[in-house]
């Protein structure tokens, strides 16, 4: 996983922002923000929270603790009925390795099926036109 320093810089550069833009956002100077990106200073929690909201990522993602950008909001998202992404993840993680592989294979097959069905619909529309 990437470090906080790499993530902060990457998110900023991906949006073509300057350090001064982000410094203004979190209420500090460009020089101080530069120290956050280089690791000379620790990013305050308040700034971490502001940046997570600004970039629409989780604080854990900003800190390099997870590759999942969405965080808790994604885990609480309902998949169907009362099943959330978090509860599904917990169920998958409770399986042994063979069970986890079987779930991944099934997801892969479902994705292939949807792709095939989508292509079939497009092909049918072309022949009707």
General description of the model:
It contains eight helices and two strands. A hairpin with a 2-residue loop joins strand 1 and strand 2 (83-84). The chain has 129 residues and is mainly α. A two-stranded antiparallel ribbon has the order 1-2.
Task: Give keywords.
68% helix, mainly alpha, 129 residues, elongated
In short:
This protein is mostly helical and 129 residues long. 68% of the residues lie in helices and 4% in strands.
Residues in helices, as a percent range: 55-70%
- The overall strand count is 2
- Rounded to the nearest angstrom, the radius of gyration is 21 Å
Identify the overall geometry. Answer: elongated
The arrangement of helices and strands along the chain is HHHHHHEEHH
Structural class: mainly alpha
Number of helices: 8
**Contiguous uncertain segments of 5+ residues:** none
Biggest sheet details? 2 strands, antiparallel
Spell out the blueprint of helices and strands.
Elements: H1 4-14, H2 19-26, H3 30-38, H4 45-55, H5 59-62, H6 72-75, E1 78-80, E2 83-84, H7 85-93, H8 97-128
Antiparallel strand pairs: 1-2
